[in-house]
Amino acid sequence: MARPATKAARAAEKGDARPHDAEGYLPHSLSRLMNALNGQLMKALRPTDLTIQQFRVMQFLRWVGVASISEICKGTVIEQSVVSRIVDQLQQRGFASRSRSAVSGRVVEVTLTAVGVAVYDALDPQARRIVEATVTVLKPAEQQQLHGLLNRLFEQVQKLEQDGGE
């Protein structure tokens, strides 16, 4: 039998699905974890026909109540053009509404409608179960430590971005 051509193929043949070059590379590890979690979340979202990003925007709005487009962008780390399109889609489905801010008429505020709240609240327990089932391999102290470390890394990325990306 011929030997597999790539290192990844040889690793997979041996039952080692992780190419050794990727081990310890944080972006790869985080991406794999998010892709796996999002894959499970997509199954839960399928009956509602919501995308992951639509769900994340609804989640953020449920947490904060009212937010401007720029606040949603900052809170979800989704580009403004994408957030605007998502809010349009949610509004068309009756899940969100826009209104002018009472403080500044130039700012448009977004909120979930009662229907949007009901849809999100029905999905939230499923989303939480996915995360809870994942983190059960960690002790509570490890879970807290992981959250703290991820928050520190996120803050560092934000700081580097503000400092010019270096």
List the helices and strands and how they pair.
Layout: H1 7-13, H2 26-45, H3 52-64, E1 66-68, H4 69-76, H5 80-92, E2 96-100, E3 108-112, H6 114-135, H7 140-162
Antiparallel strand pairs: 1-3, 2-3
Explained architecture:
The chain is built from seven helices and three strands; from the N terminus they run αααβααββαα. It has 166 residues and is mainly alpha-helical. The radius of gyration is 20 Å and the shape is globular. The N and C termini lie far apart (49 Å).
Average pLDDT works out at: 89
Fraction of helical residues: 55-70%
Coarse shape: globular
* Straight-line distance between termini: 49 Å
* Number of beta-strand segments: 3
Q: How many H/I helical runs?
A: 7
**Element-level helix/strand string:** HHHEHHEEHH
Low-confidence stretches: none
Biggest beta-sheet profile: 3 strands, antiparallel
Estimated share of beta-strand residues: 5-15%
Please list the strands of the largest sheet in the order they lie side by side: 1-3-2
Rg, nearest Å: 20 Å
Decide which structural class fits the backbone. Answer: mainly alpha
